[in-house]
Automatic annotation (TrEMBL):
It comes from Arachis hypogaea. It holds the Pfam family SWIM. Residues 785-820 are annotated as: Disordered. GO terms for molecular function: zinc ion binding. Keywords: Metal-binding, Zinc, Zinc-finger. SMART domains: ZnF_PMZ. The keyword Zinc applies. The keyword Zinc-finger applies. It comes from the Eukaryota. This is SWIM-type domain-containing protein. Residues 577-613 form the SWIM-type domain.
Amino acid sequence: MEPQTQVFDELPDPFHIHYKLQEASNSQRHTSDQNVHNVSDHVDEDVTSDAVDMDQYRINSWEDIGKIDFSSLSMKNICQLHFADLGLAFEFYNSYAKTRGFSVRKSRSRIVDGKVREKAYVCSCEGYRLEKWNHMKNRVREPKPETRCGCMSKLHVFFDAVIESWVVRDFCDEHNHDLVVPKLARMLRSHKKMTEPDISQMNHMKEVGISIPNIFGSLASQCGGYENVNFSIKDMHNQVAKQRRQLPDDLTSAMAYLEMLAARDRNLFYSVEKGREGVFRQIFWCDGRCQLDYDLFGDVLAFDATYKKNRYRLPVVIFSGVNHHNQTVVFGAAIVSNERKSTYVWLLKQLLIAMKGKIPTSVITDGHQSMAIAIQEVFPNAHHRLCAWHLMRNATSNIHKPQFTKMFTKLMLGDYEVGVFEQKWEEMVGFFGVEDREWIADMYGKRNMWATAHIRGKFFAGFRTTSRCESLHAVLKRYVKSRYNLTEFVQHFQRCLSYMRHREDLADFKSSTGQPVMQTHFQQLERSAATIYTWQIFVLFRSMLHKASTLKVIYEEEKSSCKIYQVSKFYKPNMIWHVSFHGEQDEFKCSCMRMDSIGIPCSHILAVLGFLDIAELPKSLVLRRWTRKAKEGISGYDDMGGLMEDSLAISRRACLAHWCKQIMNEGCLKGDIFNESRDVLVNILSCIRTHSGDNNMMEEHAEYMYEDLAKNGSTEIETTRKPKRCSYCRKGGHNIATCSMKKMDERTPQFDDDAAENIEGEDYSFVDAESDEYVHTEWFEEEDEYLDSSRYYEQSGGETESSMDYDSGGANDDDDEAEL
């Protein structure tokens, strides 16, 4: 066998590394009987002292390992290496193993005076699996294939105190198993490793809601293909789980995150309630922007509970409303352990504390009994409305007669006088023979919470159902997953809020730029409204102007305090509304009370304005909450849009990553370009570390969050295991496949089908056209009786005539309570 030779080619190096190991010839590989070497065996008399200069074999950094050509590295070269620290020895052996097609693991150590003095690294196939693992009882998973076969390959290093380096003592490169082809070596265990840049990029992409598989695909694209990624999707999931285990307990971590937000937002409010022995019960929080929104738009409050949005299956309660763009706006959120009355009382009281004691004018819920009791206790003067969609569904499930549901819906949505409502209720109940039903008696007792006849004139900003809440839950599902713990839920919920506020900014921009093209016959009124309302509300107002062109004033009467105008539809003389005009107050009122219920002038008032040649909307018909100036003069909104503390660093990282990826893709094509690119990058990294130190931003960030709060110890989460229920009707004893209520609903006509789609397409139905569907139909084969406006007309000083109108906009509400 010809003796192996070694050549050292000096390269310019910022760290003054004086070697590069490579073979000068393609000489024959060592034979199996020469695979085990000792350092003493490598004293070659033919090699001069200059060639065996120890500095040439010293590895001081990971960059030095990157300069080694492993394909032509001889065993003599390996046995002459010495390493600055033990970690470099492992990195070298692992890199060498990857080029050969095997993986390595750390083995035995020798400790002297409490310090490691010798260390062995072996092939991952070294040794044998213990028999007890092959004969486990009650095994759930299939046992993994056995890979250990007694391989003797190893690298043994010891610490030489004279040169203060780790020196190779023994090196064996003999394997008793097949080696993996280099293409597949990246899949071996010791080579599947996520680097710190990979982890950092994954975390940032995960923070914006990108799933792990999509992140993996993005990283593969950056590296030039999946074959260049040195880890798998499972490794990424394991890294995420590892990070979670390293955090303090969940509640403490969530509180730490809120404390971090509070350092940036001095108005952020959060409150935690714990039970006995510190067991978590519920947490409520709202930031400063939520409080400002509530101050402006908190006259109407809607809240609902959604389920399975977190790891603990705890209910999530979101308080929401509608802003001046007719968009859903969030006032606060809570995670609770149960839905008892005491829980909702606590939540509403915390909401009052956060909102400086402001009580909403109206509240709408899905009818949960605990919610109703809590609202009555905390908001005794608020108008509580029940969700129309839930009532229709309950009518179907309790009476089991589709025709009854149809009649009940007409009665609920029809804009009748109270006397007419009472008469029709008795007729309906008697016709279907359900007088003795408990649900019927309960609904009649709550009629002032759902019947339009009883709640007409109360301001609900267009809310008739909790469809906005359900739509918000659907949007939230895009940002939070059921596996998220409390901390992750709060983080991603705030990200969802950020997106919703971004949409509000877009709406602000759209409303502040350009002028809409006039499209109606009342162009002066239309132009006046265009300068007052936001774009979304103006579109709704314009639809009212279009309807006003189908109306006419048929009679006017002068009274001592006002003028009364009778408005009718063309070709429908029986449809009459009364509009009163109080000149001193410049105030208009209509018998339909839509202005009082919604805050936008109805078509009947607009018809009178056109009749009187009024070119500008009177101030009495403009509700500030719908205008462009809704936020004008409110301090704090401009301060809420600043960059987060880490945002600039994140942007810089993205910029550097963009250029580094291009260098990575183009710099590896040719050897000379690669060497030059590598040296330049190493130089840059050296300069950065010299000026700023090797500090990790994420470690500092985590330390800031958890340094003090981690000392509090763990906190248990109080959860209540509920029996399995149908995801459709929420009742037990069956599932959605056998749900009789679902089958009944599928056969029942849908009456609320022209409204809220989801949060992306906001609910414009609250000012929908007057619909004749519910009122102008036969009631038990008799002509419908129209709304008696005598009560209103007598208050205005006039004589009575029939009139009617109502808001018929519905809600297409998707039941999104259960996330499967």
